[in-house]
């Protein structure tokens, strides 16, 4: 079951969104995000439906859910690459794309292998 509702505290970790719960709540009000009162919590605790969130947030949250589900069984290599890429920040995605275009996958694998060997 993919999680559908997220608190403002769940959302402050995303680049491109406000970094405080108050900022998230303000943005949600201005943009008209679908919300509900959090059950079992006293006060004004609100959570927001995934369909109301910006696309970059939705794709990252869904990738995390997919990634978590795959950890139970064997993960397909392509899905692993896609999930990892989706979870990157925009500037990191650009760096990886540029690296692959200019250096190729073999050079990337050489760097990864060097990193793995240096941690042993």
Describe the secondary structure blueprint for this structure.
Elements: E1 5-7, H1 8-11, H2 21-31, E2 35-37, E3 46-49, H3 55-70, H4 77-87, H5 90-118
Count of individual beta strands: 3
Termini Cα gap:
38 Å
The share of residues in helices is: 55-70%
Shape: elongated
Average pLDDT: 82
Structural class of the secondary structure composition? mainly alpha
Number of helices: 5
For the largest beta-sheet, the strand count, sense and barrel status come to:
3 strands, antiparallel
Strand fraction equals 5-15%
Low-confidence stretches: none
Q: Report Rg.
A: 18 Å
Order of helices and strands: EHHEEHHH
Strand order of the largest sheet: 1-3-2
Describe this structure in words.
The chain is built from five helices and three strands, in the order E-H-H-E-E-H-H-H. The N and C termini lie far apart (38 Å). The protein has helices spanning 8-11, 21-31, 55-70, 77-87, 90-118; strands spanning 5-7, 35-37, 46-49. It is mainly α and 120 residues long. Strands 1-3-2 form a three-stranded antiparallel β-sheet.
